[in-house]
Amino acid sequence: MGPIRRLGHSLVISLWFMFLTFPIMVPKVDTIEKTVQWRWDNLLYVGAGSFFLSLLWRFLLERKERGPFRAAEREQKPDAPTWADRLRGNPRALRSVVVILALAVCIFPFLPFVTTYQVNILTNAILYIMLGLGLNIVVGLAGLLHLGYVAFYAVGAYTYALLYYHFGVGFWTALPLGALLATLFGVLLGFPILRLRGDYLAIVTLGFGEITRLVLENWGEFTFGPSGIAGIPRPGLFGMEMNLHEVTIYIYFLMVGLCLATIFVVRRLQDSRIGRAWVALREDEIACEAMGVDTRMAKLTAFALGSTWAGLAGVVFAAKTTFVNPASFTFLESAMILSIVVLGGMGSIAGVALGALILILTPEYLRAFSEYRMLAFGVIMVLMMVFRPQGIVTGVRRVYTYTRKGQDGKET
Amino acid sequence: MTEPLLDIRDLTMRFGGLVALSGVGLHVSAGEVVALIGPNGAGKTTLFNCVTGIYQPTAGDIFINPPGGPRRRLNGMKTHRITAAGIARTFQNIRLFPEMTVLENVMIGRHCRTRAGVLAAILRDRDTRREEREVVERSYEILERFDLADHVNDLAKNLPYGDQRRLEIARALATEPFLLLLDEPAAGMNPKETDELEGLIRRICDEEKVSVLMIEHDMRIVMSISDRIVVLDYGQKIAEGTAAEIWENPAVIKAYLGEETL
Fold first, then answer.
1. Of A51, A56, A364, B49, which is most buried by a Cβ count within 10 Å?
2. What is the pLDDT of residue A85?
3. Across the interface, do B155 and A408 touch by the CB < 8 Å criterion?
4. Which are the contacts of A380, defined by CB distance < 8 A and separation ≥ 6?
């Protein structure tokens, strides 16, 4: 498209926007003084703003459309990879990045300007990394759209809350129990949905999530209804007395440890026989089954293992906030965790971590604009889906290298 | 007399009022290449889907006599169990795992011959590592035999069409079948690729000791490669025999060219 036409098009768009927003942006009626104020300058701002935004939008879209050609060039010239590929191909750089990250994570809570609040929100973000990684097994690897993930998170949280309330069970005992119970629920949900796929699966899981929340809200004698359970103890460390700041830092490190364990396990699962079967299931279910993979079993394990992490995260959540009620486990939470996985990049661990940090920390630091938070959230999601539907970091397949025939195959 | 590897008797498949297959009998013996031909909609792929457990046949029996194993009836068995029992297939429209590498595609074929579970994957003990190494080696070996070794780490979707067809056969062979079902392996191939495919199928049959049952429309490859040809039309078997016999069979000519009207 020629530059003149492009400008003309943007001009039309800006005029249209000026017309549309005129009634709310320009006249201001003062009913007491009985005067009408005409704010014509606002119209100018709207016009100029929409003009430049539409130019920018068009420019970005055109750049994106040229994308496939660029990708074809890249195939011929393998020297032009993205920054993520470059980092992956360079083990030394990768190692230094990991070391710097690890140091930053360790030092962070002890920095002088870091308050309890800051540690708390980072802990929260790490909790969501863990949830994201768990959901990533189901959605990213096995390709099963799961909209009721929060139900298993709730199972974990209520396990600890109820066990403490009735039997005085401590955090460290509740942690494995919560995980186990969530896994069990995962299997229970897994059985009826084995035959479903795609949209149907999404709807059933969505229903399951809502049913769980409604049960928690309405089964008063068992769950204490909407008022929830308060006074759940924070995790202890060999009976040591800690003040609020210390215990926050303790939970932070606990969370970091759990998150590292999650990453370790998910990485190993990804590269295993089971992990490959999950990806094959995602790619083509019929071919997968015809190649001898028990797809029912693969789905069931994906569901169960995904739920395990939600259960663990749930127990930590209950211990961290010392209070659980059904309002914490709405569909919005499920959607949030799903957004983390999709935004970050399905099937990629680094992507999920990045997605969680962006989606959880940004709203915290943008509290000043809290009224526009959901608006910004929506805009970000739309932009992502238009310009980078595969997520921030794309998962790469594992590369194997060999020495030819007869000798041992080696992996890198 | 040795029992045939695959023994289909009176197979009938109905979809509501539509009879896709009616009373079809077919057998494949060890070392044979059998071609299944017929006009579009004759029920060829339906027969494949019945054998591999994707459809449950309405009536009839499918038996297998695996070499060195007991006779088994396949009706009602799950698809993945049938694969494990030794029947592998390819698809009419290629069904690779596009976002996985070529090697991983073949590695999936090894799934039913390996055992590592969730716990083994997490602990990655010595047995699991050995099994994993064997899977990689074995898959690589198969790819070398199929001239795909240069592409091991490419994504399957980036392969040229002919290579994708070959990869699908390689993936099927990784399951260690005794019988391979090929659904139109030469579809969309140029004459040179078809010649190569012909050599490949011969090699599979002679060297790997795998019998082949294939659906194919390319008469050149059908005539030159198959030991026996079975012709289906409107769900019924109308002829069976060697290439020369089929060539002259009036029923077959009628099915393909239509009846002569005077």
1. B49
2. 64
3. no
4. A343
The reply to whether A288 touches chain B by the CB within 8 Å rule is yes
Please tell me the predicted confidence (pLDDT) of residue A412: 38
| CA distance readout (Å), A410 to A266, A401, B136 | 22, 6, 9
Using DSSP, state whether B179 is helix, strand or coil.
strand
Residues sharing a CB contact under 8 Å with residue A302, sequence separation 6 or more, in sequence order = A137, A138, A141, A142, A144, A278, A281
User: How many beta-carbon pairs under 8 angstroms link A with B?
Assistant: 126
B9: pLDDT strictly greater than 90: yes
Query: How crowded is residue B89: how many other Cβ atoms within 10 Å of its Cβ?
Result: 27
Least CB–CB distance from A400: residue in B78, B83, B136? B136
Between β-strands B6-15 and B87-89, what pairing exists: parallel, antiparallel or unpaired? unpaired
CA B180, CA B88: separation in Å to the nearest integer?
Answer: 5
Out of B101, B121, B158, name the one closest to residue A275 (CB).
B121
Give the span between the Cα atoms of B156 and A14, in whole angstroms.
46
B166-193 pLDDT tens trace? 999 999 999 999 999 999 999 888 888 8
Is the Cβ pair A290, B83 closer than 8 Å? yes
CB contact (8 A) between residue B153 and residue A399: yes
A182 CB-near residues (< 8 Å, 6+ apart): A152, A153, A155, A156, A159, A307, A308, A310, A311, A312, A314
Handedness of CA A161, A166, A170, A176 (dihedral sign): negative
Cβ proximity of A168 and A384 under 8 Å = no
Q: Does A405 touch chain B (CB under 8 A)?
A: yes
Single pTM value for the model? 0.85
The tens digit of pLDDT for each residue in B210-247 reads 999 999 988 889 988 999 999 999 999 999 999 888 88
- Closest to A290 (Cβ–Cβ): which among B79, B104, B152? B79
- Please report which helix (H) or strand (E) contains residue A410, including its range: strand A410-411
Q: Do A408 and B137 touch (CB under 8 A)?
A: yes
Q: Which two tokens stand for residue A47?
A: 């016009």
Residues in chain B within 8 Å Cβ distance of A269: 118, 121-122
Interface test with A, best of B122, B136, B159 (most A CBs within 10 A): B122
Question: Taking chain A (412 residues) in consecutive chunks of 10 residues, what is each chunk's mean pLDDT?
Answer: 82 90 86 86 89 88 70 46 64 83 85 86 94 93 91 95 90 93 91 83 91 91 86 78 83 92 92 92 92 92 93 94 91 90 86 89 79 79 80 75 50 40
What the block records as the tokens of B230 is 């079975």
Burial A348-362 (b: 16+ CB within 10 A, else e): bbbbbbbbbbbbbbe
Chain A residue numbers with beta carbons less than 8 Å from the beta carbon of B128 are 272
Q: Where are the domains of chain A?
A: 3-73, 90-387
Q: Convert the pLDDT of each residue in B57-85 to its tens digit.
A: 999 999 999 988 889 999 989 999 999 99
